[in-house]
Amino acid sequence: MSNTYTNALVHESSPYLQQHAHNPVNWVGWSEDILKLARESNKPLLISIGYAACHWCHVMEHECFEDPSVAEIMNSHFINIKVDREERPDIDHIYMDALQMMTGSGGWPLNIVALPDGRPFWGATYVKKNDWKEVLTQLASLYNSDKKRVVEYAQNMEDGIKAINLVELNKQKDLIDIDELSTSVKDWSKYFDLEMGGYNRAPKFMMPVNLNFLLHYATAKQDKAILNYVDVSLTKMAWGGVYDQVGGGFSRYSVDAKWHVPHFEKMLYDNGQLASLYAQAYAATGKELFKEVVEGIMEFVSTGLTNQDFGFYSSLDADSLDKSGKLQEGAFYVWEKEELVQLLEDKFEIFASYYNINDYGYWEDKNYVLIRNQSFEQVALDHDLSESQLQEIITESLAILKITREIRPAPRLDDKVLTSWNGLMLKGIIDAYKYLGKGEYLSLALKNAQFILQHLTTTDGGLYHNHKDGKSSINGYLEDYASVIDAFTALYEVTLEETWIETAMKLTNHVISNFYDADSGMFYFTSKNDAYVIRRTVETFDNVIPSSNSIMAKNLFRLSRFFNEENFEKIAHQQLKNVQNEIRRNAQSYANWMQLALYFNQPFYEIAITGSEVHEKLNELQRAYIPNALISGAEKKSNLPILKHRFESPDTLIYLCEKGQCQLPRSRSKEVLTQLRQSALH
Predict the structure, then answer these.
(1) What is the domain count for the chain?
(2) Residue 38: which domain range?
């Protein structure tokens, strides 16, 4: 198929940028050469940021960027730069902060008009075609007629962008304590939706980092109300349309308050974190539903987002072709009643009751999104069925729908591999193995870890950020290092293969050498070897993904215990102090930091296993939910500092320690678990 237009994006690796390669707009990718050209030509920049799975990005492309009359205005007056926010989160951070300062809100597509040096002076998200043409014409005129005014505004924006990201070294001696954490949780809980879970608003994001902290907090404090809230949230999310009842895996968020109608795009980073969260919740509660969700996520990722080398792709689009051949959001996932009646025959009535093919489950245009609102047991009781009979009907029905759905045009795949998201997914797989005990999960984890080592590691021991079509590119960001260090540390804990913890340590030293800012006690998002626009970002805000600084701080805390590195703990301690006032003001945005605060405020244990039966003891211990402990072990003498001087006895022994100070060793795992539970109660 020949294309009328082709621009410079045809040479880019990003699937999102390639989607725009045949727009009449003269798009270029972000580069220092383009910025130099802009400065030399004195033309303003039009920077449009999005990602491949973004529905409204596609809408704006179709309405605006595919239109020659729009392209004429853009090409005449601007240097037009397309950015994949997932490839260049450093650029996205800057301009998202700018947009929020200008308008009070953010989102994608993120459209920015800036001076040739990158300083912004106008921004918006989705804009309709006629409005877009009008505003660009006005901005071009303003830039040419009153440049002094534009430059003054851009300078003020630059000052604000720098100020909003300023983190100062907190020199106070006191660290936030457990009582203050409890107060913060109490204030935070005012926003909880106690009936449906999540926050009492719509749209609803799953926010796994928040629920992960609250699960830890609730078990540590024996807080039944918070534990119930976590249980309700996880249950209603799993029952909802936001979870793919047929194929497994979660969409990005729900547009309504009952988790019913999702924004249908499926992101790797959500599913990695949710696999970890549900696996931990299963260990903490024993609830079978949570185990089933983990298995569903694993099935979806292993079959739908895994390449031949066991790297994980980034996402599936929200849009796919409907029956008429038009791109439609959710077309792949929704069902008409008549179709279900025909497919399921005598099973339809029970299925319809279970998944609400009624007013509760109706979406729009004759389409239903599958959603539950009753327990399995209640539905069986209502229909006078045994639980095994109901299970058979639902299992057979879902199998039929899955086969039917596989015939439909699939959502578009973003097949780039991001190091940071692979780290999050790897950690999720490890936790799935850790708490469910399925060997195939460990096998997949090891294959993905090898992929990271082989394809995403630089010659100097650092990391790349991106991999596509056999090529790795873009120097790694802090988020890449933080998530991989976390995952490799966890992989050591379930395998006891020291190469993983040693690699985590090497990557950590690389981060300290290349990202650490001694003046603030924090880590920059970009390496000191990389160019930046306006500022070097310091990421502290925990959102749908925990901030790279909070993940790194937790890494440092844990590694300090493995390697007896006091400096690591000191850095983590200072990082936490730097954000603790923000925790007091806005706890919901600092959940990962709050878990670090639990590490510092409550006993944190090192479990060291030595002897020939080390793996048997490990398997027994790791099935328990112990968020305030790490595990190490070896069959014979090890140079790992945490295991030194632990091999005096020929027997297999388990040491329970705090900062290297150990209780008398035990030979039975149950005794250690009992000790841990008793200490948690005091």
Answers:
(1) 4
(2) 8-164
